[in-house]
Design goal:
The protein is of the alpha/beta class. The protein has 2 domains: 173 residues, Rossmann fold (3-Layer(aba) Sandwich), CATH 3.40.50; 259 residues, pyruvate-formate lyase- activating enzyme (Alpha-Beta Horseshoe), CATH 3.80.30. The chain is 42% helix and 18% strand. It is built from 20 helices and 18 strands. It has a 7-stranded mixed β-sheet with strand order 3-1-6-7-8-9-10, sandwiched between helices. The protein has a 6-stranded parallel β-sheet with strand order 11-14-15-16-17-18. Strands 2-5-4 form a 3-stranded antiparallel β-sheet. Helix 11 runs parallel beside helix 12 and helix 15 packs parallel to helix 18. It starts with a strand and ends with a helix.
Length: 508
């Protein structure tokens, strides 16, 4: 039986990043399950999970790579492998992923190499042109596409009939017909976690959200019905929001709770809470199950369906952390980026969640094209109001023109983005790097935006801790403790550990 190897490369991390995502690869686990579901044999090489403590200097000295080295990854690939799949979820990691693909091609000259993920979906022609070692790109949702593509490659059939891919023919990149979105999510095979080193995460408290013990990722929905211009979701997933049955989600969680002794679940959904009736049913089912665990929504969610009733149910069902995504405090900016929210209504929702003891975070982006100083002042004033309400955390990140987003396309058309150099891709990591801020607004300099970013953080936390000084004491305690309660605590602990490990690696 033919062997397929799926690879998640190491994570590229800025040395001064305020967050380091070390979490189980749910996307790759779903793809592995899809292949196994049609009778294929799969092995997985997850660079971070196989070396979660390893931080190595990247070629660009501003960055570190988190996980196995290229040589270690190649040694981990079974020599019997017939097809290799490699994921590139984030465009800022493209330079190191491209180099890894080239090295894999040298070691496995006869094995077709397939690329997938949000970067490949956003830039399929460029990816195949920029990386001659890459044979095929999977565009969009991957389960059905990958299973059909691998079967065609193994049988030596033409790829023209496989929807949702990009490949070369006679030196030209060909895009096949787009594949429709999956709608029957309950019919999708559950992730094949048996192929991954879960103990690396579970035993060390790693996860996408705040460290609340042994954490597993879960997806309850796919897609987002909104069309924010800074987001690549419409390209990757489309604007149809599709949910699983809450019974199926809970059954999956209870299975993990029993099998892996899970304490906490991180929901990876783009926008988990859209319909009030769905989340109310789910919360009541969790409460009625009588099983004790926590769960959280770290990605960012809408506020329309989260009123006092819902937030109370969220807490009773074990939800302890939730991220809101206002993005801006300026109505004019929100209109330009098609972020259809009511700021006052969001404040009411956040206030209800805080009253119900949910640890809440707000995601803020600044430096959008055409954004003015006055509009940033509106955002700063909005965050002051959030501090007064008692929201626990905030992130001030510079807007990055991510491939696949509407704003990226607009900036291309305006000749503000003219090439895809490695420096451009590395620059997309600025949203996590507290020392590097790039403004995309013609009215605001990089230096001014960097000032607003730091000033906004200091002003928010200064106000928050002045009103609630006991939270500062708790934050200091949790940074050096075994568990954290907020993203700030998690970020500070990650930064401390990362700098310590990088020093140890340099000393060796």
């Amino acid at each position: 039986m033919s062997l397929i190897t799926l690879i998640r490369p190491p994570v590229l991390v800025a040395k001064w990043a305020h967050t380091t995502p070390t979490c189980p690869p749910i996307g790759l686990a779903y793809l592995a399950a899809a292949l196994e579901g049609v009778g294929m044999t799969v092995k997985a090489v997850y660079a971070v999970g196989n070396a979660p403590e390893q931080m190595l200097p990247a070629d660009d000295q501003r960055f570190l790579t988190h996980g196995q080295s290229t040589d270690e990854i190649i040694r981990a690939i079974d020599p019997a492998t017939k097809v290799i799949g490699i994921s590139c979820m984030f465009s800022h990691e493209w330079p190191i992923t491209r180099a890894l693909i080239a090295s894999i091609r040298q070691a496995f000259p006869d094995a077709p190499i397939i690329g997938g993920g949000e970067h490949i979906t956003a830039l399929p022609e460029f990816s195949l042109t920029d990386c001659s070692a890459l044979d095929v790109g999977v565009i969009g949702e991957g389960e059905e596409t990958l299973a059909e593509l691998v079967a065609a490659l193994l049988d030596g059939r033409s790829l023209d009939a496989v929807n949702g891919i990009a490949f070369r023919r006679d030196g030209e990149v060909v895009l096949t017909e787009a594949r429709p979105r999956l709608r029957a999510l309950d019919d999708i095979q559950l992730p094949s976690w048996n192929l991954f080193p879960l103990a690396s995460y579970l035993d060390n408290g790693y996860g996408f959200g705040v460290n609340r013990g042994r954490s597993m990722p879960v997806l309850a929905t796919r897609g987002c019905p909104y069309q924010c211009t800074f987001c690549s979701n419409p390209t990757m997933w489309g604007t149809r929001w599709v949910s699983r049955a809450p019974e199926r989600v809970l059954a999956e969680m209870l299975g993990y709770h029993q099998q892996y002794k899970i304490d906490n679940f991180d929901f990876y959904d783009l926008t988990a809470i859209v319909k009030k009736d769905w989340i109310v049913r789910f919360c009541n089912m969790v409460i009625n199950s009588g099983v004790d665990f926590t769960w959280q929504l770290p990605s960012g969610t809408r506020s329309e369906a989260i009123d006092s009733e819902v937030s109370e149910l969220l807490y009773k069902s074990g939800c302890r952390n939730m991220s809101y995504a206002p993005e801006s405090g300026s109505p004019a900016v929100l209109e330009r980026i098609k972020k259809k929210i009511d700021l006052r209504a969001m404040e009411v929702s956040i206030s209800a969640s805080v009253r119900n003891n949910i640890n809440c975070k707000a995601n803020i982006l600044i430096g959008f094209p055409h954004e003015t100083h006055a509009e940033i002042f509106q955002t700063l004033w909005f965050t002051v109001r959030l501090a007064a309400i008692g929201i626990h955390d905030i992130s001030f990140s510079p807007f990055s023109p991510y491939p696949g987003s509407e704003l990226f396309s607009d900036m291309q058309k305006s000749n503000l983005i003219t090439d895809y150099s490695d420096e451009f891709f590395y620059g997309l990591a600025a949203y996590t790097d507290i020392t590097k801020t790039t403004s995309c607004s013609e009215y605001i300099s990089n230096r001014a935006l960097g000032f607003y970013r730091i000033f906004g953080m200091l002003m928010f936390y200064g106000m928050l801790y002045m009103i609630r000084p006991w939270r500062l004491i708790r934050t200091i305690r949790n940074v050096f403790g075994e568990q954290q309660e907020s993203r700030l605590e998690m970020s500070l602990r990650d930064l401390y550990i990362r700098l310590t490990k990088s020093k140890e690696a340099a000393a060796r």
